[in-house]
Design a protein that fits this description.
Layout: H1 2-10, E1 12-16, E2 19-23, H2 26-122, H3 125-133, H4 138-283, E3 314-317, E4 320-322, E5 325-327, E6 330-333, E7 340-342, E8 347-355, E9 359-368, E10 371-380, E11 390-391, E12 396-399, E13 411-417, E14 427-428, H5 431-434
Antiparallel strand pairs: 1-2, 3-6, 4-5, 6-13, 7-12, 8-9, 8-11, 9-10, 10-13, 13-14
Helix pairs in contact: 2-4, 3-4
GO molecular function: hydrolase activity
Keywords: Coiled coil, Hydrolase, Signal
InterPro entries: Cell_wall_metabolism_enzyme (IPR050570), Dup_hybrid_motif (IPR011055), M23ase_b-sheet_dom (IPR016047), PcsB_CC (IPR057309)
């Protein structure tokens, strides 16, 4: 019931110069609906922003974990590289040791070959027997036997050392080569893990960059919604102000009309009294010509055009489709500094702000002949009016400029039959109104 009363209270019937001007709550209801739609979109975008931030936090946590793993892997790689360097140093030392062993083996090989050759040339065991039989005494025999045993023992020792050295060389070579192979394999595995972690980190950074870009788009969408809401809220206030202004104007004219009628009635009464007095005189005097009828009150002056051309210059682009899409207004350009832009009609400034697309921009709400109109003045160099301000037709708003998404000094002028909305569904060709 309250809603019906509110809507009814917004429907005003204004008598101006004998005409009835009516304004319904349809425009305000349309603004309310669009505000509700924007609230839903804003809520959705905020939810998307929350999800985006959570995903960014998760991605950053993954990047931190990967970075920690990379640090550990890097340390392990450094350790393995150090171990490999040490092993290579061991191998280098071993090569020297092997060279010494191989030299000793070669010398033993030579000595053994000489022994074998001597034994072969001297008859082997026969030579040993002749040595013993050639002894001069038993003591000499014993000495010769001990000497022969020592020689045989030395030969046996040489053979055992020879075999031992060969085994050591083979064993050390095998151990060091195996250790080096294991270290190299481990290093290769760690390098592979590092490459994998780097690839994961790169992918997470790419995802984070994508999320940052998405966040920027959501932020721009939210800013766009906030700007639309600000315009709608300002328009709502401006429409109410315009209706109130029109009502005050109607009441003022009504008072003026009442005063005019009262003055006319008083003049008529005075004229009647004068005529009555003259009639009394004529009753005692010869008949005279009747007095002329009073002159009719002058008709009210014809009002000027409802909307005036907002600036000077040439029309460089008209309303309608053009390359790049629909052009919802007309562009008017004139070279030189200080080309004034003025209000096309009296009204209330709904918005005076800077837009990324429109640059310095002013939106004015008008109530003309019972209809709400909105005019838009974009790309101005400066703005001389503020929101909520009442302006008259021809009042200075600023100068033609090149601000926002513009390519040269001009005024982009739009007219909307009703309120402005982002879809610009109320846009009309301004030229029939201002020419």
């Amino acid at each position: 019931m309250k809603k019906k009363l509110m809507i009814a209270s917004l429907s005003l019937s204004l008598g101006l110069n004998g005409f009835t001007y009516q304004v319904s709550a349809e425009t305000l209801n349309s603004i309310k609906q669009k505000q509700e739609q924007n609230k839903k979109q804003e809520s959705q975008k905020k939810s998307e922003m929350h999800d985006n931030h959570e995903e960014q936090d998760e991605t950053l946590a993954k990047i931190d974990n990967i970075a920690a793993e990379l640090k550990k892997t890097g340390n392990k790689i450094s350790e393995k590289e150090s171990d490999i360097t040490s092993t290579k140093a061991v191998i280098s030392g071993l090569k020297e040791e092997i060279a010494v062993l191989e030299k000793r083996i070669a010398e033993r090989d030579k000595l053994l070959k000489e022994r074998v050759k001597s034994m072969y040339e001297n008859g082997g065991a026969v030579s040993y027997l002749s040595v013993m039989l050639g002894s001069s005494s038993f003591g000499d025999f014993i000495d010769r036997m001990i000497s022969l045993n020592l020689i045989a023992s030395q030969d046996q020792t040489i053979l055992e050392e020879h075999r031992s050295d060969k085994d050591k060389v083979a064993k050390k070579k095998s151990q060091v080569e195996t250790e080096l192979q294991n270290l190299t394999a481990s290093l290769s595995e760690l390098q592979g893990l590092k490459n994998q972690l780097n690839a994961q980190k790169k992918e997470q950074n790419r995802l984070l960059a994508s999320l940052k870009e998405e966040e920027q788009h959501i932020h721009e969408d939210l800013m766009d919604i906030e700007e639309k809401n600000a315009i709608l809220t300002a328009q709502e206030a401006a429409i109410k102000a315009e209706i109130a202004r029109a009502q005050q104007e109607a009441e003022r004219k009504k008072r003026e009309e009442a005063a005019r009628k009262a003055a006319a009635a008083a003049a008529a009464r005075a004229e009647a009294q004068k005529a009555s007095a003259q009639a009394n005189k004529r009753s005692s005097a010869p008949a005279a010509k009747p007095a002329p009828a009073p002159a009719p009150a002058p008709a009210p002056a014809v009002s000027s055009r409802d909307f005036a051309f907002p600036t000077s210059g040439y029309i460089t682009s008209r309303y309608g489709y053009r390359e790049g899409g629909m052009h919802y207004g007309v562009d008017i350009a004139k070279p030189g500094a200080g080309v004034a832009v003025t209000a096309a009609a009296g009204g209330t400034v709904a918005r005076s702000y800077y837009s990324d697309s429109y640059g310095n921009c002013v939106l004015i709400t008008h109530y003309v002949n019972g209809q709400i109109y909105t005019t838009v003045y974009a790309h101005m160099r400066n703005r001389a009016v503020s929101e909520g301000q009442s302006v008259s037709q021809g009042q200075y708003l600023g100068d033609q400029g090149n601000t926002g998404n513009s390519f040269g000094q001009h005024l982009h002028f739009e007219m909307h039959k009703g309120g402005w909305n982002a879809a610009k569904s109320n846009a009309v060709d301004p030229l029939p109104y201002i020419q």
